[in-house]
Amino acid sequence: MKSLKVALLQIMPAGSQQQNLEKGIAACRKAKEMGADIALFPEIWNTGYVIPQDKEQVHRLSVPKDSSFVQAFSALAKELEMAVAITYLESRQPLPRNSVTVFDRHGREVLHYAKVHTCDFGDECVLYPGEDFYVADLDTAKGSVKIGAMICYDREFPESGRILMLKGAELVLVPNACPMEINRLSQLRGRAYENMYAIATCNYPQGKPDCNGHSTGFDGIAYPPDGSGPRDTCIMEAGGEEGIYIADFDMDAIREYKESEVHGNAFRRPWKYHILTEETVLPPFVRTENRKIK
User: Fold this and answer.
1) What does the pLDDT average to over 223-234?
2) How far apart are CA 80 and CA 247, in angstroms?
3) Model confidence, pTM
4) Beta partners for residue 125, in sequence order
5) Which of 116, 157, 181, 206 has most Cβ atoms within 10 angstroms of its Cβ?
6) Distance, CA of 132 to CA of 145 (rounded, Å)
7) What is the pLDDT of residue 226?
8) Considering the domain boundaries, does residue 81 fall inside one?
């Protein structure tokens, strides 16, 4: 699998869920014309990352996984023979979730992930967090690739990326809705470097409040086997403008690198890391004051 093309749909919300559906479908069609194998949306596309703080309103804007909105992208993925990672405010009780569902080129659901690290310090305090991180085999026209997902704030926790690495992820899809500046971009660069996998991040463009574009692709290959010396793992970075941007990953090179380098799981010592999973040891900086779900 030489070239796997991920289309980053760095597009503005259109105003209503129906308009977002129509604009999202049009963006996927354009991505296919550009040769994409996977189309990735920014975070909570069905509402344009609008999260009401009123419980009735947030439930009203949410949609179930089997809704016509979500399933339209299943049918589209099958029609276009292109995988689609669609994001949405997912209906559930007691509160909705921030979710992404990935449909393969046959329109089959292969991955469903709800954001684990919800932003409890902000609007997402009214959302229910996900339970775990998942990896799945995605069938593409170029061959099978193991994918996982993080959503926005998840990227700020090394544990998110580590779990996906340990489960075998080769490509991590990251829907996003925040300013992508040097520090957040450095987090993505770090996750790709330390876990030796590809990361594709799709953000909203500038003009969307608190967003600035700069969707990115990182391939994780810091030290090429040819001995040419260190390189930047960022293979593409969009500007702030609305558009569809292609991150082109050489999966064969990434797999070869993973087999030969010393990062990831090569020399870990998990028997030394017990404190990471001891829930009774809660340091004082763990904050829960805004969290609706305890």
Assistant:
1) 90
2) 19
3) 0.94
4) none
5) 116
6) 20
7) 84
8) yes
Q: Which domain holds residue 125?
A: 4-277
Distance CA 96, CA 291 (A): 14
Backbone dihedral angles phi then psi of residue 200, each to the nearest 5 degrees: -115, 120
Q: Measured between alpha carbons, how far is 63 from 60 in angstroms, rounded to an integer?
A: 8
Judge contact between 34 and 246, C-beta under 8 A.
yes
Who contacts 114 (Cβ-Cβ below 8 Å, separation ≥6)?
90, 97, 98, 99, 128, 129, 130, 131
Chain segment 83-142, per-residue pLDDT in tens: 999 999 999 999 999 999 999 999 999 999 999 999 999 999 999 999 999 999 999 999
d(CA 133, CA 144): 19
> 171-202, pLDDT tens digit by residue?
999 999 999 999 999 999 999 999 999 999 99
What's the domain count of the chain?
1
Query: To which residue do tokens 């703080």 refer?
Result: 53
190: exposed, middle or buried (Cβ count in 10 Å: 0-12, 13-18, 19+): middle
Type of residue at 212: N
Mutual orientation of helices 182-195 and 158-166 as an angle, nearest 10°?
30
At residue 167, the pLDDT reads: 98
The CATH number of the domain where 225 resides is what? 3.60.110.10
